Amino acid sequence: xxxxxxxxxxxxxxxxxxxxxxxxxxxxxxxxxxxxxxxxxxxxxxxxxxxxxxxxxxxxxxxxxxxxxxxxxxxxxxxxxxxxxxxxxxxxxxxxxxxxxxxxxxxxxxxxxxxxxxxxxxxxxxxxxxxxxxxxxxxxxxxxxxxxxxxxxxxxxxxxxxxxxxxxxxxxxxxxxxxxxxxxxxxxxxxxxxxxxxxxxxxxxxxxxxxxxxxxxxxxxxxxxxxxxxxxxxxxxxxxxxxxxxxxxxxxxxxxxxxxxxxxxxxxxxxxxxxxxxxxxxxxxxxxxxxxxxxxxxxxxxxxxxxxxxxxxxxxxxxxxxxxxxxxxxxxxxxxxxxxxxxxxxxxxxxxxxxxxxxxxxxxxxxxxxxxxxxxxxxxxxxxxx
Length: 386
Hints:
CATH architecture of the largest domain: Up-down Bundle
Helix content: 40-55%
CATH class of the largest domain: Mainly Alpha
Protein backbone atom coordinates (compact mmCIF):
# COMPACT_ATOMS: atom_id res chain seq x y z
CA UNK A 1 0.00 0.00 0.00
CA UNK A 2 2.54 2.61 -1.11
CA UNK A 3 1.59 6.27 -0.88
CA UNK A 4 0.91 8.07 -4.11
CA UNK A 5 3.23 10.84 -5.24
CA UNK A 6 0.57 13.38 -4.25
CA UNK A 7 0.26 11.89 -0.77
CA UNK A 8 4.03 11.92 -0.26
CA UNK A 9 4.06 15.57 -1.30
CA UNK A 10 1.23 16.31 1.17
CA UNK A 11 3.11 14.56 3.97
CA UNK A 12 6.43 16.26 3.24
CA UNK A 13 4.89 19.71 2.87
CA UNK A 14 3.11 19.28 6.21
CA UNK A 15 6.38 18.15 7.79
CA UNK A 16 8.21 21.22 6.50
CA UNK A 17 5.44 23.56 7.64
CA UNK A 18 5.33 22.01 11.11
CA UNK A 19 9.11 22.09 11.52
CA UNK A 20 9.23 25.76 10.57
CA UNK A 21 6.21 27.02 12.51
CA UNK A 22 5.21 24.77 15.42
CA UNK A 23 6.59 23.55 18.72
CA UNK A 24 8.69 26.55 19.77
CA UNK A 25 9.98 26.67 23.39
CA UNK A 26 8.60 23.19 23.89
CA UNK A 27 10.69 22.28 26.93
CA UNK A 28 9.44 25.35 28.82
CA UNK A 29 5.84 24.86 27.68
CA UNK A 30 5.96 21.21 28.70
CA UNK A 31 6.98 22.31 32.21
CA UNK A 32 4.15 24.84 32.39
CA UNK A 33 1.56 22.47 31.00
CA UNK A 34 -1.59 23.73 29.27
CA UNK A 35 -2.43 26.49 31.76
CA UNK A 36 -1.21 29.27 29.47
CA UNK A 37 -3.89 29.45 26.79
CA UNK A 38 -1.81 31.78 24.64
CA UNK A 39 0.95 29.19 24.27
CA UNK A 40 -1.43 26.53 23.11
CA UNK A 41 -3.88 28.53 21.04
CA UNK A 42 -1.20 30.12 18.88
CA UNK A 43 -0.04 26.80 17.44
CA UNK A 44 -3.63 25.55 17.28
CA UNK A 45 -4.57 28.46 15.03
CA UNK A 46 -1.55 27.81 12.81
CA UNK A 47 -2.69 24.20 12.42
CA UNK A 48 -6.17 25.39 11.49
CA UNK A 49 -4.84 27.90 8.96
CA UNK A 50 -2.74 25.20 7.31
CA UNK A 51 -5.81 22.97 6.92
CA UNK A 52 -5.15 20.09 9.31
CA UNK A 53 -8.53 20.56 11.00
CA UNK A 54 -10.58 20.87 7.81
CA UNK A 55 -9.04 18.27 5.49
CA UNK A 56 -11.97 15.86 5.85
CA UNK A 57 -14.73 18.45 5.64
CA UNK A 58 -16.90 18.99 2.56
CA UNK A 59 -16.12 22.08 0.51
CA UNK A 60 -19.42 23.72 1.46
CA UNK A 61 -18.22 23.83 5.08
CA UNK A 62 -14.80 25.25 4.26
CA UNK A 63 -13.05 21.91 3.87
CA UNK A 64 -10.94 20.19 1.22
CA UNK A 65 -12.86 16.88 1.03
CA UNK A 66 -9.63 14.92 0.99
CA UNK A 67 -9.56 11.13 1.06
CA UNK A 68 -8.90 9.50 4.42
CA UNK A 69 -5.54 8.22 3.17
CA UNK A 70 -4.45 11.70 2.08
CA UNK A 71 -5.60 13.24 5.36
CA UNK A 72 -3.65 10.62 7.28
CA UNK A 73 -0.55 11.34 5.17
CA UNK A 74 -0.81 15.04 5.97
CA UNK A 75 -1.26 14.34 9.69
CA UNK A 76 1.70 11.96 9.67
CA UNK A 77 3.74 14.85 8.27
CA UNK A 78 2.52 17.04 11.13
CA UNK A 79 4.03 14.57 13.60
CA UNK A 80 7.26 14.31 11.64
CA UNK A 81 7.85 18.04 11.80
CA UNK A 82 6.34 18.97 15.16
CA UNK A 83 7.84 17.57 18.38
CA UNK A 84 4.83 18.76 20.40
CA UNK A 85 2.98 15.46 20.77
CA UNK A 86 0.29 17.13 22.87
CA UNK A 87 -0.61 19.54 20.10
CA UNK A 88 -0.66 16.83 17.44
CA UNK A 89 -2.83 14.59 19.63
CA UNK A 90 -5.28 17.46 20.19
CA UNK A 91 -5.54 18.08 16.45
CA UNK A 92 -6.19 14.41 15.74
CA UNK A 93 -8.64 14.15 18.62
CA UNK A 94 -10.82 16.93 17.23
CA UNK A 95 -10.60 15.69 13.63
CA UNK A 96 -11.41 12.04 14.28
CA UNK A 97 -13.58 12.04 17.42
CA UNK A 98 -15.59 15.27 17.33
CA UNK A 99 -15.72 16.59 13.76
CA UNK A 100 -16.22 13.13 12.25
CA UNK A 101 -19.21 12.42 14.51
CA UNK A 102 -20.89 15.75 13.79
CA UNK A 103 -20.18 15.49 10.05
CA UNK A 104 -21.84 12.06 9.93
CA UNK A 105 -24.85 12.48 12.22
CA UNK A 106 -25.72 16.20 12.14
CA UNK A 107 -28.70 17.67 10.36
CA UNK A 108 -27.93 20.22 7.63
CA UNK A 109 -28.68 23.01 10.09
CA UNK A 110 -26.38 21.53 12.74
CA UNK A 111 -23.62 20.91 10.22
CA UNK A 112 -23.76 24.49 9.00
CA UNK A 113 -23.71 25.74 12.57
CA UNK A 114 -20.63 23.89 13.85
CA UNK A 115 -18.54 22.32 11.09
CA UNK A 116 -17.10 25.53 9.60
CA UNK A 117 -15.86 26.65 13.01
CA UNK A 118 -14.38 23.25 13.83
CA UNK A 119 -12.57 23.35 10.51
CA UNK A 120 -11.19 26.89 10.71
CA UNK A 121 -10.15 26.59 14.36
CA UNK A 122 -12.57 29.18 15.72
CA UNK A 123 -14.36 26.38 17.57
CA UNK A 124 -12.60 23.84 19.77
CA UNK A 125 -14.56 20.64 20.36
CA UNK A 126 -14.43 18.02 23.11
CA UNK A 127 -15.73 14.47 23.15
CA UNK A 128 -17.46 14.05 26.54
CA UNK A 129 -17.91 10.36 27.32
CA UNK A 130 -15.67 9.25 30.21
CA UNK A 131 -16.95 9.39 33.78
CA UNK A 132 -15.40 8.55 37.13
CA UNK A 133 -17.18 5.20 37.41
CA UNK A 134 -17.23 4.24 33.74
CA UNK A 135 -13.86 4.41 31.97
CA UNK A 136 -13.41 1.14 30.09
CA UNK A 137 -17.09 0.32 30.75
CA UNK A 138 -18.03 3.23 28.54
CA UNK A 139 -21.81 2.93 28.76
CA UNK A 140 -21.99 2.76 32.57
CA UNK A 141 -23.04 6.41 32.50
CA UNK A 142 -24.51 8.38 35.37
CA UNK A 143 -24.95 11.60 33.40
CA UNK A 144 -28.65 11.99 32.66
CA UNK A 145 -30.70 14.01 30.18
CA UNK A 146 -34.30 14.60 31.25
CA UNK A 147 -36.83 15.60 28.61
CA UNK A 148 -38.49 18.97 29.31
CA UNK A 149 -40.43 21.45 27.25
CA UNK A 150 -38.22 22.55 24.36
CA UNK A 151 -35.24 20.38 25.12
CA UNK A 152 -33.37 18.48 27.84
CA UNK A 153 -31.86 19.13 31.24
CA UNK A 154 -28.45 17.48 31.68
CA UNK A 155 -26.83 16.55 34.99
CA UNK A 156 -23.53 14.79 35.49
CA UNK A 157 -19.76 15.01 35.48
CA UNK A 158 -17.22 13.97 32.87
CA UNK A 159 -13.51 13.45 33.54
CA UNK A 160 -10.29 13.00 31.52
CA UNK A 161 -11.75 14.85 28.55
CA UNK A 162 -9.31 16.07 25.92
CA UNK A 163 -9.58 19.81 25.15
CA UNK A 164 -12.26 20.22 27.84
CA UNK A 165 -10.72 23.27 29.56
CA UNK A 166 -10.62 25.18 26.25
CA UNK A 167 -13.66 23.77 24.45
CA UNK A 168 -16.29 25.93 22.81
CA UNK A 169 -18.58 22.95 22.24
CA UNK A 170 -18.69 19.49 23.77
CA UNK A 171 -20.24 16.33 22.37
CA UNK A 172 -21.78 15.04 25.60
CA UNK A 173 -23.18 11.54 25.99
CA UNK A 174 -25.98 11.20 28.53
CA UNK A 175 -28.67 8.69 29.41
CA UNK A 176 -32.19 9.62 28.32
CA UNK A 177 -33.48 6.17 29.37
CA UNK A 178 -31.31 4.64 32.12
CA UNK A 179 -33.28 1.39 32.12
CA UNK A 180 -32.29 0.76 28.47
CA UNK A 181 -28.54 0.78 29.13
CA UNK A 182 -26.47 1.61 26.07
CA UNK A 183 -29.63 1.77 23.96
CA UNK A 184 -30.86 4.63 26.15
CA UNK A 185 -27.80 6.84 25.60
CA UNK A 186 -28.16 10.03 23.56
CA UNK A 187 -25.64 12.58 22.28
CA UNK A 188 -25.92 16.35 22.72
CA UNK A 189 -23.94 19.39 21.63
CA UNK A 190 -23.36 21.57 24.68
CA UNK A 191 -21.96 25.07 24.19
CA UNK A 192 -19.54 26.84 26.50
CA UNK A 193 -22.00 29.61 27.35
CA UNK A 194 -24.82 27.30 28.41
CA UNK A 195 -26.01 27.95 31.96
CA UNK A 196 -25.05 25.09 34.26
CA UNK A 197 -22.14 23.96 32.05
CA UNK A 198 -18.69 24.31 33.59
CA UNK A 199 -15.30 23.51 32.08
CA UNK A 200 -12.68 22.38 34.58
CA UNK A 201 -9.13 23.66 34.87
CA UNK A 202 -6.40 21.77 33.00
CA UNK A 203 -5.34 18.62 34.84
CA UNK A 204 -1.69 18.04 35.70
CA UNK A 205 -0.48 14.87 34.02
CA UNK A 206 2.56 12.74 33.25
CA UNK A 207 2.88 13.47 29.55
CA UNK A 208 1.16 15.27 26.67
CA UNK A 209 1.25 18.27 28.97
CA UNK A 210 0.71 20.86 26.26
CA UNK A 211 -2.69 19.37 25.39
CA UNK A 212 -5.38 20.56 27.82
CA UNK A 213 -7.23 17.74 29.60
CA UNK A 214 -9.91 18.20 32.23
CA UNK A 215 -13.45 17.70 33.38
CA UNK A 216 -16.89 18.91 32.37
CA UNK A 217 -19.69 19.50 34.87
CA UNK A 218 -23.35 19.77 33.97
CA UNK A 219 -25.71 20.97 36.67
CA UNK A 220 -29.30 21.46 35.54
CA UNK A 221 -27.90 22.45 32.17
CA UNK A 222 -30.67 23.11 29.65
CA UNK A 223 -29.86 22.02 26.10
CA UNK A 224 -32.38 22.92 23.34
CA UNK A 225 -33.90 20.11 21.36
CA UNK A 226 -32.11 21.20 18.19
CA UNK A 227 -28.79 20.27 19.80
CA UNK A 228 -29.65 16.58 20.09
CA UNK A 229 -27.30 14.80 17.66
CA UNK A 230 -29.19 12.04 15.88
CA UNK A 231 -32.27 10.85 17.74
CA UNK A 232 -32.93 9.76 21.29
CA UNK A 233 -31.10 6.51 21.94
CA UNK A 234 -28.64 7.05 19.04
CA UNK A 235 -25.77 7.94 21.35
CA UNK A 236 -24.44 4.40 21.51
CA UNK A 237 -24.19 4.15 17.72
CA UNK A 238 -22.64 7.62 17.48
CA UNK A 239 -20.03 6.72 20.10
CA UNK A 240 -19.17 3.42 18.42
CA UNK A 241 -18.78 5.20 15.08
CA UNK A 242 -16.63 7.89 16.64
CA UNK A 243 -14.41 5.51 18.61
CA UNK A 244 -13.74 3.35 15.53
CA UNK A 245 -12.42 6.38 13.63
CA UNK A 246 -10.49 7.54 16.66
CA UNK A 247 -8.80 4.17 17.20
CA UNK A 248 -7.86 3.93 13.54
CA UNK A 249 -6.31 7.35 13.16
CA UNK A 250 -5.64 9.16 16.42
CA UNK A 251 -2.05 7.95 16.11
CA UNK A 252 -1.56 9.31 12.59
CA UNK A 253 0.72 12.08 13.84
CA UNK A 254 2.38 9.81 16.40
CA UNK A 255 3.53 7.58 13.53
CA UNK A 256 5.20 10.72 12.22
CA UNK A 257 6.70 11.24 15.67
CA UNK A 258 8.17 7.74 15.50
CA UNK A 259 9.81 8.61 12.17
CA UNK A 260 11.25 11.83 13.64
CA UNK A 261 12.42 9.89 16.69
CA UNK A 262 14.21 7.26 14.60
CA UNK A 263 15.95 9.91 12.50
CA UNK A 264 17.16 11.56 15.71
CA UNK A 265 18.46 8.23 17.05
CA UNK A 266 20.27 7.33 13.83
CA UNK A 267 21.98 10.72 13.84
CA UNK A 268 22.99 10.44 17.50
CA UNK A 269 24.20 6.82 17.19
CA UNK A 270 26.38 7.82 14.25
CA UNK A 271 27.97 10.74 16.09
CA UNK A 272 28.34 9.36 19.62
CA UNK A 273 31.62 7.46 20.05
CA UNK A 274 32.32 4.91 22.80
CA UNK A 275 35.32 2.56 22.96
CA UNK A 276 36.74 4.24 19.90
CA UNK A 277 33.81 3.75 17.54
CA UNK A 278 30.32 5.10 16.88
CA UNK A 279 27.77 3.42 19.15
CA UNK A 280 25.79 2.41 16.04
CA UNK A 281 28.54 -0.13 15.43
CA UNK A 282 27.79 -1.88 18.71
CA UNK A 283 25.35 -4.71 18.10
CA UNK A 284 23.04 -3.87 20.99
CA UNK A 285 22.51 -0.34 19.67
CA UNK A 286 22.23 -1.45 16.05
CA UNK A 287 19.58 -3.99 17.04
CA UNK A 288 17.54 -1.29 18.74
CA UNK A 289 17.68 0.89 15.63
CA UNK A 290 16.55 -2.05 13.50
CA UNK A 291 13.67 -2.80 15.88
CA UNK A 292 12.61 0.85 15.83
CA UNK A 293 12.49 0.85 12.03
CA UNK A 294 10.50 -2.39 12.01
CA UNK A 295 7.92 -1.02 14.44
CA UNK A 296 7.65 2.19 12.42
CA UNK A 297 7.03 0.37 9.15
CA UNK A 298 4.48 -2.07 10.61
CA UNK A 299 2.69 0.86 12.25
CA UNK A 300 2.56 2.69 8.92
CA UNK A 301 1.22 -0.40 7.16
CA UNK A 302 -1.59 -0.78 9.69
CA UNK A 303 -2.41 2.93 9.68
CA UNK A 304 -2.72 3.18 5.90
CA UNK A 305 -4.50 -0.18 5.63
CA UNK A 306 -7.18 1.20 7.96
CA UNK A 307 -7.31 4.41 5.88
CA UNK A 308 -7.84 2.44 2.66
CA UNK A 309 -10.64 0.45 4.31
CA UNK A 310 -12.36 3.68 5.34
CA UNK A 311 -11.89 5.14 1.86
CA UNK A 312 -13.71 2.06 0.51
CA UNK A 313 -16.46 2.46 3.12
CA UNK A 314 -15.71 -0.84 4.82
CA UNK A 315 -16.39 -1.49 8.53
CA UNK A 316 -13.20 -2.12 10.44
CA UNK A 317 -13.88 -2.73 14.11
CA UNK A 318 -11.14 -5.35 14.46
CA UNK A 319 -8.71 -3.38 12.29
CA UNK A 320 -9.34 -0.30 14.42
CA UNK A 321 -8.58 -2.23 17.62
CA UNK A 322 -5.45 -3.83 16.14
CA UNK A 323 -4.20 -0.52 14.74
CA UNK A 324 -4.66 1.32 18.01
CA UNK A 325 -3.10 -1.51 20.01
CA UNK A 326 -0.08 -1.94 17.76
CA UNK A 327 0.83 1.70 17.21
CA UNK A 328 0.34 2.73 20.84
CA UNK A 329 2.60 -0.04 22.11
CA UNK A 330 5.12 0.45 19.28
CA UNK A 331 5.45 4.13 20.20
CA UNK A 332 6.17 3.20 23.83
CA UNK A 333 8.73 0.59 22.78
CA UNK A 334 10.46 2.95 20.34
CA UNK A 335 10.53 5.72 22.93
CA UNK A 336 12.11 3.35 25.45
CA UNK A 337 14.73 2.30 22.90
CA UNK A 338 15.42 5.95 22.05
CA UNK A 339 16.05 6.68 25.72
CA UNK A 340 18.49 3.77 26.00
CA UNK A 341 20.33 4.76 22.82
CA UNK A 342 20.82 8.30 24.12
CA UNK A 343 21.82 7.13 27.59
CA UNK A 344 22.23 9.90 30.15
CA UNK A 345 21.60 12.59 27.56
CA UNK A 346 18.20 11.08 26.81
CA UNK A 347 17.24 11.28 30.47
CA UNK A 348 17.72 15.05 30.42
CA UNK A 349 14.71 17.19 29.51
CA UNK A 350 16.53 19.41 27.02
CA UNK A 351 16.91 16.59 24.48
CA UNK A 352 13.18 15.87 24.33
CA UNK A 353 13.85 12.12 24.35
CA UNK A 354 12.35 11.51 27.79
CA UNK A 355 9.36 13.68 26.89
CA UNK A 356 8.51 11.39 23.96
CA UNK A 357 8.43 8.44 26.36
CA UNK A 358 6.14 10.24 28.80
CA UNK A 359 3.90 11.27 25.92
CA UNK A 360 3.83 7.77 24.42
CA UNK A 361 2.67 6.08 27.63
CA UNK A 362 -0.69 7.84 27.50
CA UNK A 363 -1.49 6.06 24.26
CA UNK A 364 -1.94 2.68 25.94
CA UNK A 365 -4.79 4.23 27.97
CA UNK A 366 -6.77 6.83 26.01
CA UNK A 367 -9.18 5.72 23.29
CA UNK A 368 -9.58 2.38 25.06
CA UNK A 369 -6.73 0.70 26.94
CA UNK A 370 -4.53 -1.93 25.33
CA UNK A 371 -6.37 -4.55 27.38
CA UNK A 372 -9.70 -3.38 25.96
CA UNK A 373 -8.31 -3.57 22.40
CA UNK A 374 -7.20 -7.16 23.04
CA UNK A 375 -10.64 -7.93 24.42
CA UNK A 376 -12.32 -6.50 21.30
CA UNK A 377 -10.04 -8.53 19.03
CA UNK A 378 -10.51 -11.79 20.92
CA UNK A 379 -14.28 -11.35 21.10
CA UNK A 380 -14.49 -10.94 17.32
CA UNK A 381 -12.21 -13.95 16.79
CA UNK A 382 -14.40 -16.09 19.02
CA UNK A 383 -17.52 -14.88 17.25
CA UNK A 384 -19.62 -14.99 20.38
CA UNK A 385 -18.62 -18.54 21.29
CA UNK A 386 -18.60 -19.34 24.98
